[in-house]
Task: inverse folding
């Protein structure tokens, strides 16, 4: 038995969503009331009455050690007044005649007036052959798991406190009640929270510079001080004395208005944190206790509506401030204690309990209804010390029919509300490094996802009302933005098989190489075909996620891409390229095939391999441009002309480079798919790298002029938006103001510009060698900036920590004052970085002679003042600084 402790999202739901039909699985003809249910009711009565004699009478041979596999005191704890038994699953008992025995999996809710617990148990019941109804007895009762520490909270309105300058604090937060009333929230363990009403001030001063910058965007200042009228606080009873200045409280009766206000706040806010849904058994609200050091506050401010502060030890970034009504994350970072324990950097994998090794997904799709009927088989390997519960992510719109295991048979499963989560309970502990195979059957309606919404901004004409076009050919896409198949809450790499059945007039593009269905182990007998046609795909290279798109595709082109296999150990020397398009796009598709072939050959020459043996390009009609790039395929929008829409005023719009989208999305096969990121902070390793590779292809295919145009745009957006936060802030850039252009300006464009500066700083040979080493080191794994830095340092033999600290983790843009003088064949240039921070900055100096020819020199600015003498092969006429826009700096000539 393993007791599940009271923490985390795992316990938000316990008894909701029972498995259908569990209580009526008896064999043979009905002979009256269900005897197993009768045993459940008898068990309820014995436990609620704490009647050990009645409990013992339920067993065939009394309460023997062979039948009761735990101490009775686990059930008969003092003060129990309520017991409810709910059946989860039932199966025939092996070794007895049909209908004479069953194994029942049950949940047992037991409560005192103030405290509760839930046990999950396996109960074997049997009757003698031909026995009468009341001859059924329990043969074995075994507790499989338990949830302890469930409490009923009480708002104490009889003992209240007047407050002056009363302070409740957590990391970087103070709630100061200047004047008002304090009501304690109590449970059996003591004070676990308070409600404050009156006149107060919220003070929040995050320590990390990046978070202070986000707060400045939100509130206009790097620290927040705002009035509040009421606040609800939850904390551990052990923390109350050290978090609250109780000496500022004077016991004093509250008036009726204050009591009603406190009760309103308690009723509104108490169900949002550490609440357990037990609605199957009771309408009363039950709660868990926050672990020590955890802290949650719901603060009703006058200016910002409700702000939620949280300190949650189970999170990698355990301090957050959230604006609930607008769904905005204002601050999110690791506490000082968390950083001291684990270091500055982290990986999402640190919280992973298991790996998914392989998926086998069989899905039937009705595109017109956005409906899927599917079964998924997951092969898991346990990574934590032991596991009794498996949490899976699955879209809440999808109804789960059953979950079974090859090892254990039918399994108890529950839904966690509002979190796209599925909780699967195991009947026994799965030890570390053991394997487990789960099969999940589910169905439901899920909307087709749009292509990556952060690809480009579309700005409508303010004088026009723009509605989506009805003339575009439809398509149905399920991929990474919709949790359409059960998967690890912490994304990981896995191989997989995907079989998609669609109506006969459709075709499918999906993650994996197309294969004949007979060549894979399929679940096709589990999903209704419905007269459609099936497409099967196998991914032997590990994927971060799987996706597919359905439309009336036509095969437009097929060819082979030759791969430069400089990377040692690769066995992919050719990539099978296929282009599928919607009917009206075949001419564009044939042009796209040639572009794709050339781009993939170029990228493979830079890295030394292609990560996947096949590549399918799907081209679909759309109102807007965009792209999406799961492993093995790329889906591109071909926008229809619309004079009322413009996407030119966007960081990712390049008029002189119409192949940008295909170049960027193909680069994701290497950066983002073959090499993933450790957490959201590292998204630039996908987007910035893909943006730079697209620029490299622009230079190869269209020349230096187009390349320099892209560098100019990279620089313009970087300088304009760098004050919005560091590259390392990932998707949160622009989040507070709901402006995704900021995200693209910095993660895409500034990330690409930083790579180009690094290349110029270390030289082409070392830069591309470092890229190849980074790719080889982290291939089919997640990566962090420190991994890239390490690879570059190994290849260059120089420390680069200051370069990455300034450009990836910082927000500054250097201001450089320069002076140039000319004497015959010599140009002397002096640079001075203004301010206290010195950047590693390679600057292009273009020297033009009187003969009209030019020569470029790269000057490395690694100190506050740098002077260089540049020798030209003739008289010098002009000196220009950063003409190529490659350096992210403000330049002033003196």
Result:
């Amino acid at each position: 038995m393993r007791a599940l402790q009271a923490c985390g999202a795992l316990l938000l739901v316990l008894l909701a969503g029972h498995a259908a039909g569990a209580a009526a699985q008896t064999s043979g003809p009905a002979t009256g009331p269900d005897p197993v249910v009768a045993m459940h009711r008898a068990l309820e009565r014995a436990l609620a009455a704490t009647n050990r004699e009645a409990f013992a009478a339920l067993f065939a041979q009394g309460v023997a050690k062979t039948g009761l596999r735990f101490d009775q005191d686990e059930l008969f704890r003092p003060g129990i007044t309520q017991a409810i038994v709910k059946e989860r699953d039932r199966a025939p008992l092996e070794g007895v005649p049909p209908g004479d025995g069953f194994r029942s999996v049950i949940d047992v809710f037991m409560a005192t007036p103030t405290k509760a617990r839930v046990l999950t148990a396996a109960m074997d019941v049997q009757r003698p052959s031909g026995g009468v109804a009341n001859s059924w007895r329990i043969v074995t009762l075994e507790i499989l798991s338990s949830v302890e520490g469930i409490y009923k909270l009480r708002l104490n309105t009889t003992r209240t406190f007047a407050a002056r300058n009363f302070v409740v604090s957590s990391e970087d937060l103070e709630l100061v009640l200047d004047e008002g009333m304090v009501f304690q929230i109590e449970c059996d363990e003591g004070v676990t929270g308070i409600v404050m009403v009156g006149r107060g001030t919220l003070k929040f001063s995050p320590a990390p510079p990046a978070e202070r910058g986000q707060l400045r965007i939100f509130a206009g200042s790097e620290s927040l001080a705002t009035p509040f009228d009421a606040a609800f606080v939850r904390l551990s009873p052990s923390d109350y004395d050290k978090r609250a200045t109780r000496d500022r409280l004077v016991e004093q009766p509250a008036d009726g208005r204050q009591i009603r206000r406190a009760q309103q706040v308690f009723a509104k806010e108490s169900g949002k944190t550490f609440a357990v849904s037990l609605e199957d058994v009771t309408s009363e609200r039950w709660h868990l206790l926050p672990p020590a050091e955890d802290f949650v506050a719901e603060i009703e401010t006058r200016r910002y509506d409700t702000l939620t502060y949280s300190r949650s030890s189970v999170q990698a970034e355990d301090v957050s401030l959230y604006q609930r009504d607008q769904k905005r994350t204002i601050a999110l970072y690791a506490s000082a204690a968390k950083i001291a324990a684990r270091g500055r950097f982290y990986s999402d994998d640190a919280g992973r309990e298991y790996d998914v090794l392989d998926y086998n997904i069989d899905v039937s799709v009705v595109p017109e209804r956005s409906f899927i009927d599917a079964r998924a088989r997951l092969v898991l390997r346990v990574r934590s010390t032991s596991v009794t519960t498996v949490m899976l992510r699955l879209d809440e719109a999808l109804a789960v029919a059953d979950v079974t295991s090859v090892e254990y048979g039918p399994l108890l499963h529950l839904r966690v509300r509002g979190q796209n989560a599925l909780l699967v309970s195991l009947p026994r502990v799965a030890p570390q490094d053991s394997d487990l195979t789960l099969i999940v059957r589910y169905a439901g309606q899920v909307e087709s996802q749009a292509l990556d919404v952060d690809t480009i901004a579309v700005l409508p004409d303010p004088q026009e009302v723009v509605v989506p076009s009805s003339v575009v050919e439809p398509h149905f896409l399920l991929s990474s933005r919709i949790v359409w198949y059960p998967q690890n809450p912490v994304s990981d790499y896995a191989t997989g098989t995907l079989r998609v059945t669609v109506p006969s007039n459709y075709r499918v593009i999906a993650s994996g190489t197309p294969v004949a269905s007979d060549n894979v182990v399929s679940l096709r007998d589990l999903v209704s075909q419905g007269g459609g046609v099936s497409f099967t795909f196998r991914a032997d290279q590990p994927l971060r996620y799987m996706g597919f798109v359905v439309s009336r595709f036509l095969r437009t082109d097929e060819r082979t891409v030759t791969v430069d296999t400089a990377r040692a150990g690769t066995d992919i020397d050719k990539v099978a390229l296929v282009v599928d398009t919607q009917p009206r796009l075949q001419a564009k598709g044939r042009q796209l095939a040639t572009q794709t072939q050339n781009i993939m050959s170029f990228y493979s020459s830079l890295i030394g391999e292609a990560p996947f043996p096949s590549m399918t390009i799907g081209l679909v009609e759309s109102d807007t441009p965009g792209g999406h790039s799961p492993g093995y395929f790329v889906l591109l929008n071909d926008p229809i002309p619309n004079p009322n829409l413009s996407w030119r005023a966007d960081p990712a719009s390049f008029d002189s480079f119409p192949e940008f989208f295909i170049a960027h999305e193909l680069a994701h096969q290497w950066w983002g798919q073959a090499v993933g990121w450790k957490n959201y902070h590292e998204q630039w390793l996908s987007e910035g790298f893909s943006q730079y590779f697209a620029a490299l292809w622009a230079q190869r295919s269209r020349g230096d002029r187009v390349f320099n145009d892209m560098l100019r745009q990279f620089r313009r957006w970087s300088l304009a938006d760098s004050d919005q936060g560091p590259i390392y802030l990932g998707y949160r850039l622009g989040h507070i103001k709901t402006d995704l252009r900021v995200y693209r300006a910095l993660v895409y464009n500034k990330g690409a510009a930083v790579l180009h500066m690094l290349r110029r700083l270390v030289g082409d040979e070392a830069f591309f060698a470092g890229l190849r080493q980074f790719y080889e080191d982290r291939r089919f794994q997640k990566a962090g900036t420190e991994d890239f830095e390490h690879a570059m340092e190994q290849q260059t033999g120089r420390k680069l920590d200051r370069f990455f600290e300034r450009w990836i983790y910082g927000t500054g843009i250097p201001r450089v004052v320069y002076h140039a003088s000319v004497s015959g064949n010599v140009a002397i240039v002096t640079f001075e970085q203004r301010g206290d921070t010195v950047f590693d900055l390679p600057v292009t100096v273009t020297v033009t002679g009187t003969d009209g020819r030019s020569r470029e020199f790269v000057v490395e600015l690694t100190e506050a003042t740098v002077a260089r003498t540049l020798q030209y092969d003739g008289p010098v006429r002009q000196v220009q600084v950063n003409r190529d826009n490659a350096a992210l700096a403000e330049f002033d000539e003196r």
Summary: The chain has a mean pLDDT of 89.
